[in-house]
Write a structure and sequence with these properties.
The complex is a heterotrimer of chains A (about 100), B (about 625) and C (about 170). Chain A is mainly alpha-helical. Chain A has three helices and no strands. With about 170 residues, chain C is mostly helical. Among the domains of chain C are: about 80 residues, Four Helix Bundle (Hemerythrin (Met), subunit A), CATH 1.20.120.1200; about 35 residues. Chain C starts with a helix and ends with a helix. The chains are: A mainly alpha (about 100), B mainly alpha (about 625), C mainly alpha (about 170). Chain A: It is a multi-pass membrane protein.
Chain lengths: ~100, ~625, ~170
């Protein structure tokens, strides 16, 4: 019943991961950077679920891990947005190139 | 004697204590200094008495450093010379501490002065207790520091600053000699201990040339410290310091350290005829040379300074003529009467509101009823008038020189004695007799804290000679050389006419001074008008300072100027180049650190990509 | 590869997901970007269902398409924005470099996954999928599960503290 090859799923995940990576490294708005990171995490999830079904030892474990990843991602977004808001209140900006205190 | 090491610690305690609390104590600092040096004095006297009763010297030391097979030790030793020096130093120091309370009254840095005095006394006492050359050297330099600090005490005066620097640098020249000599000895003997060095000398394990060389190098150190020719010029300049300092350091103790060093290493010198001859010649020359300069000086302290140089030359002459006892004896009597003279001079200066030119003084005998007679006692002692202490010690020296066979040096010494008597009485008559040559203002005798030490020293200046006389027994001499044949005899027998000659010469000097400066039956310019060139040469101290300025100082200056240019252009240029390259690298590196998280992430990711690419191309999973 | 219904579904979902991602990269307005991403997340949920992970698909829609996207929108609304995404920070040559890097990275991995087939029979994960996950979670992964709840709690409190603290400061300033 595997009419769709495993390669197709993995390739989709790869494409989404690359898009997320490119976005995270080039976008100026911190919110978009955060979203790009979420996209990368989602690509990973696709991989996990794919291997959970078509992998060497198919098992439900992959899906369980995907659940964990989603939970961690949700927590990350919550904290990330909170940091962003705090930062915005202090610096009046969400542009990542203006947040360069690491330089000093 | 076991507790002799405590003696230097009292002044050290005084120094530390006054550094910490002196600012609050103000003039109360004096009591701390006086009491602690009094403790030193008491202990010193106890040690001296114990040493007299004890059959042998006491020595205690502990290993300080261990370098392979070699052991450097630190400790203290009480032998006859040390015990005697301890008493001299702590006594004069105590008296000067007391005297300074009156002399320095009202000075802003009163407590600093006492702290420095404590430091110096500590160093000097440590110096005389040292059982080995290394320790001696350490305290030797500490003494130099104390002297530097005290000469430059009035650091706001240009002359005082220059004098302090000059004293430090000139003694330093001598110290280099001492250091080299010390290291040579260590190389030869493998130890800094006096005992072991003497044992090696006696056993003949060092070659004759090496003994001569090391002895002369050590003597160079002594020349620097004791102001012998040609390194004498710092001592008269050092008179810029407060007068009690001149009395303590530049008359009684530190300048005697050179003589003490030669005396302490006497067996080494005794083993080399050449070294002895050098010491004797330098000593005799310095004695007559400084005495002749003293004839024409007009500053009261400078006259005394040249007299000190001259008397130190005497001591060196005695040591160089195998007159160990005579040298040490004169060192002791000189410490007392020269300290007395300086303190009395200080009293005069104090009374005259810091006027030092004797041309402006006169007729002070009545106005200073205590200082005048005390000064006279000192003058009589230094001139070698019979029955005063200087007479006996000077006599011993002359006999030693005669007995050693240096007849030419003997004649020089006699002439120097004549000069000494003459210029000392010239000084006395000009200051205390006749009429005041300038308005002196309100002249008052100094307070008791100043006169009491002078009285003590006055008594000593008279009686100190009786511990070693040809008439009543040579107690000091016998004791000093007891149990040590290398030091020579306690008393050297000499022809009786020497004593008569010495007496006649000093009386002649006094008489001439009396004619010229008291009766004025002989015009003062009788000599100066006949030989103006000689007079001007003497008056300008043989132009030694000018000669040094033109030769040594000028040469050093030009060399250092040249080096400065090298430093500025070559060294600094190289340095700037290196620093510039590094900072340029750093700057270009820091441009990557722009704080942009995305740039960092990109760099990391690209690095990963490149690594993967390399992995794939070099036969990774594509393979 | 037959043109089955499953294949059609995968293809359409995949295209929607990739197009959503491309929109994220190319749109200029922040809100539009987030909307584009919403489609991506939704089609990923579809992909999950295709991969017999119905529970995960529902969670995906709830958490991503629902919660996270909404949070992002709130974040956008609470911070002031120039609607236009301005010139990107990174210079052109850097973007090109990054593009080359990303493409080569993707190409390398594609070579790795191309033609990958383990030949195993797929597990029957779609049968009572939620029950299976529940059993695994509570039987094999109890401790990570509990730790996850602690993590979420910490994140919750952390988020509150982070955004509240500054309120206090603002109040003090004013």
């Amino acid at each position: 019943m595997s009419s769709v090859p495993i390669t197709a799923f993995l390739a989709l995940a790869l494409i989404l991961f690359c898009i997320g990576l490119y976005g995270a490294l080039t976008k100026r708005n911190t919110i978009i950077v955060l979203i790009s990171i979420e996209l990368m995490l989602n690509a990973v999830n696709i991989n996990l679920v794919t291997f959970s079904k078509y992998g060497m030892t198919p098992a439900i474990t992959g899906q369980v891990f995907a659940v964990f990843v989603i939970a961690v991602a949700a927590a990350e977004v919550a904290v990330g947005i909170a940091i962003l808001l705090a930062l915005y209140r202090n610096r009046r900006t969400v542009n990542i190139d203006e947040i360069n205190t690491m330089k000093h | 004697m076991e507790n002799a090491w405590l003696i230097p610690l009292f002044p050290l305690l005084s120094f530390v204590f006054l550094l910490l609390f002196g600012r609050k104590l103000k003039e109360g600092s004096a009591y701390a200094g006086i009491l602690l040096t009094l403790a030193s004095l008491v202990f010193s006297v106890i040690v001296l008495v114990e040493r007299m009763a004890a059959p042998a010297s006491y020595k205690a030391e502990a290993v300080w450093l261990k370098i392979g097979e070699l052991e450097l030790t630190a400790g203290f030793e009480v032998n006859q010379l040390n015990a005697l020096m301890l008493v001299i130093v702590s006594l004069v120091s105590f008296l000067v501490h007391t005297y300074s309370k009156g002399y320095m009254h009202g000075d802003d840095r009163f407590h600093v002065f006492y702290a420095y005095l404590g430091l110096f006394t500590f160093a000097m006492l440590g110096l005389v207790l040292s059982p080995n050359l290394l320790q001696t050297y350490i305290f030797w330099e500490l003494v130099g520091v104390g002297s530097f600090l005290l000469i430059g005490f009035y650091y706001f005066k240009n002359e005082a600053r220059a004098a302090a620097k000059k004293a430090f640098i000139m003694t330093r020249i001598g110290d280099v000699g001492l250091l080299i000599g010390m290291i040579l000895l260590f190389w030869q003997v493998g130890s800094f201990e006096y005992d072991e060095i003497f044992a090696a000398v006696e056993a003949g394990s060092i070659s004759g040339t090496m003994i001569t060389l090391t002895a002369i190098l050590i003597f160079i150190g002594a020349v620097g410290k004791s102001g012998q020719f040609p390194l004498h010029t710092w001592l008269p300049d050092a008179m810029e310091g407060p007068t009690p300092v001149s009395a303590l350091i530049h008359a009684a103790t530190m300048v005697a350290a050179g003589v003490y060093l030669v005396a302490a290493t006497f067996p080494l010198f005794a083993a080399s005829e050449t070294a002895m001859m050098t010491v004797a010649i330098i000593g005799a020359f310095t004695a007559i040379f400084a005495a002749s300069i003293g004839l024409a000086q007009t500053n009261i302290k400078r006259v005394l300074a040249y007299s000190t140089v001259s008397q130190l030359g005497y001591m060196m002459l005695a040591l160089g003529s195998a007159g160990y006892v005579a040298g040490v004896f004169h060192l002791m009597t000189h410490a007392f009467f020269k300290a007395l003279l300086f303190l009395a001079a200080g009293s005069v200066i104090h009374a005259l509101h810091h006027k030092q030119n004797i041309e402006e003084m006169g007729g002070l005998w009545k106005k200073l009823p205590l200082t005048g007679p005390l000064f006279l006692m000192g003058t009589l002692a230094i001139s070698g008038v019979p029955l005063f202490s200087g007479f006996f010690s000077k006599d011993e020296i002359l006999i030693a020189v005669w007995a050693h066979g240096n007849y030419f040096l003997f004649i020089l010494a006699v002439i120097a004695a004549f000069f000494t008597a003459f210029y000392m009485f010239r000084l006395f008559f000009m200051v205390f007799t006749g009429e005041a040559r300038s308005p002196l203002g309100n002249v008052q005798e100094s307070p008791a804290t100043m006169t009491m030490p002078m009285v003590v020293l006055g008594v000593l200046a008279v009686v100190a000679g009786y511990v070693n006389t040809p008439w009543f027994g040579t107690f000091l001499g016998d004791w000093l050389v007891e149990g040590n044949e290398a030091l020579g005899h306690g008393h050297i027998e000499g022809p009786a006419w020497i004593m008569i000659v010495a007496t006649l010469v000093s009386l002649a000097g006094i008489f001439l001074a009396y004619l010229m400066y008291y009766k004025k039956s002989l015009a003062r310019d009788w000599f100066t008008s006949r030989a103006p060139i000689t007079y001007s040469i003497v008056r300008n101290k043989y132009f030694i300072d000018e000669f040094y300025n033109l030769s040594v100082v000028y040469a050093t200056r030009s060399v250092s100027l040249f080096l400065r240019f090298i430093e500025l252009f070559l060294v600094e240029g190289l340095m700037k180049l290196v620093a510039g390259v590094v900072s340029l690298l750093g700057k270009s590196g820091s441009r990557f650190q722009n704080g942009q998280i995305q740039t960092y992430g990109m760099a990391a990711f690209l690095g990963l990509a490149v690594l993967l690419l390399i992995f794939a191309l070099t036969g990774g999973y594509i393979g | 590869m037959t043109l089955s219904g499953e294949f059609l579904a995968f293809m359409s979902l995949a295209i929607v997901a990739v197009v959503g991602g491309m929109l994220l990269l190319n749109l200029t307005k922040v809100v539009h970007m987030v909307l584009g991403l919403f489609f991506t997340f939704a089609s990923i949920a579809g992909i999950f269902i295709l991969l017999s992970a119905e529970f995960l698909g529902v969670v995906q829609i709830l958490v991503y398409s629902g919660a996270i996207t909404i949070i992002m929108l709130f974040g956008i609304m609470l911070t002031r924005h120039q609607d236009e995404e301005e010139q990107p920070t990174v210079g052109a040559w850097k973007r090109v470099l990054l593009l080359i890097g990303v493409l080569s990275f993707g190409a390398l991995f594609y070579i790795g996954i191309y033609g990958l087939d383990f030949g195993t029979t797929p597990a029957a994960l779609h049968v009572s999928n939620t029950e299976q996950i529940g059993m695994a979670l509570y039987r094999d992964f109890v401790i990570p599960f509990e730790l996850m709840s602690v993590l979420l709690l910490v994140a919750l409190i952390g988020a509150i503290v982070l955004s509240r603290k500054d309120d206090g400061k603002e109040a003090e300033k004013q």
